[in-house]
Amino acid sequence: MDTFGWDVAVSNEVVAGTAPFVVGVVIAAMLVAAVWWGMRVRAQEPGPPRPEEQPHLPDGGAVHEIREAREPEEMPHDGQVLTPYELHAVPTRRAKKQSRPVWNTNSSGGFGSGGLGHH
Q1: What SS3 state is found at 57?
Q2: Fewer CB in 10 Å around end: N or C, the chain?
């Protein structure tokens, strides 16, 4: 009787059963090492700021949003190519007229919104 086939089959069964177990143990050990290393790194970091180190409001109180109408800054153009030093940092300026537009009661709102439009 040929026993060579049985020896190979038994070793394959042993490998098939122990290989996933060994891989699982290795992965579990890597996870435990990662958590341990993370705890070590976290212990070396500075703690949270104390209450007196927290940000606080300025002496003048809270800074509020400013609402204003803006209009585009006109570009000087005399047919020449503009150079970077001729451009402004902010492409808009404060509008001379600060009143807000009022909607007409007969206005449809937006283009194509299905309203009656202007009469």
Answers
A1: coil
A2: N
Between residues 14 and 111, the one the model is more confident about? 14
Q: Which of 38, 108, 95 is nearest to 69 (CA)?
A: 95
**What contacts 103, CB < 8 A, 6 or more positions away?**
109
pTM score, whole prediction: 0.37
Give CA–CA dist 103/86, Å, rounded. 38
Cite the DSSP H helix spans in the chain: 4-44
Tell me which H or E stretch contains 94.
strand 92-94
**Domain ranges for the chain:** 10-42
- Interval 44-72 mean pLDDT: 86
CA distance 86 to 40: 56
CA distance 32 to 24: 12
What is the token pair recorded at 90? 């902010």
